[in-house]
Amino acid sequence: xxxxxxxxxxxxxxxxxxxxxxxxxxxxxxxxxxxxxxxxxxxxxxxxxxxxxxxxxxxxxxxxxxxxxxxxxxxxxxxxxxxxxxxxxxxxxxxxxxxxxxxxxxxxxxxxxxxxxxxxxxxxxxxxxxxxxxxxxxxxxxxxxxxxxxxxxxxxxxxxxxxxxxxxxxxxxxxxxxxxxxxxxxxxxxxxxxxxxxxxxxxxxxxxxxxxxxxxxxxxxxxxxxxxxxxxxxxxxxxxxx
Length: 242
Prior knowledge:
7-stranded mixed beta sheet, transferase, SAM-dependent_MTases_sf, 8 helices, 42% helix, alpha/beta
């Protein structure tokens, strides 16, 4: 199959929204890993006085991680899938969390504007048609010195990383998803990872698109070598990205 993109991918997520939380709950460490990546933003004082953008919030797992780690931040959560966003917005949230329906490429049209002190993006960049364009949008939304954390499936480059990913997808995830009627989306999931950047390449992509202080950080458990946190920063006006 070809990779799903744009409105086709959003429609697939719309359909999968009803069972998405059940599937991710079966993934050991899923929510703990999101909280770990949120902490890696390194924001002070629980986010007091800060604006944070949750880009590609899905059904709200990443939003919940941010709200727990940064309870005092003003969190704007955005997703391109109306079905996923409906699930997210239907949960109980504190008043400092808001939701907006928009693809990452058209945030301005939906009224999402900076500056943000931080952007968090979980499982987003391998799903967009032009990750470089979205990274530039994110950079421009950040205040000078603002921070980015990307939580993403990016293989570490070892043959065993791809083998474990394939085993989990084809042996566990895809059969269950097919029974639920969402086989196309989860076949896309496997292929989107193996065809996307390695972890080193994605770190380089951040630098190429104007971020500095870039770090690639592993996550523990079975996802070691499969899922990473990437952190970076928009340079201040007196600095040059390096």
